[in-house]
Amino acid sequence: MFLLGERLERENKTVKAMVEIYCKKNHKSNIGSCRECREIYDYASYRITRCPHKDNKPACTTCEIHCFSLKMKEEIKKIMKFSGPRMLIHHPILSLFHYIDKLKEGSLKKNTSKS
Length: 115
Fold this sequence. Notes:
Elements: H1 6-26, H2 35-49, H3 70-90, H4 92-114
């Protein structure tokens, strides 16, 4: 395994936490995630680790490169929609970093659009 940058590691942890929250509440999985959710996480993790933007990675929703298949994109969106609000309770630090990353992203877009 190669070393990921700090941003990619954090994003990977965030996605894993979201999948675990979703699986526990929807599939009643007590031991990690069920097979279906593990496959979704493995797919998302693979895509995150291979992101060509590296530590300058934007949020997937704002990225110009669409690297998720349509099926997996819909699955991860469903998981994020369910788990997002619950992340504040279960993983407040990851939620805070995610919010900060999005703020930085917004300021970068504003700065680049002025040029």
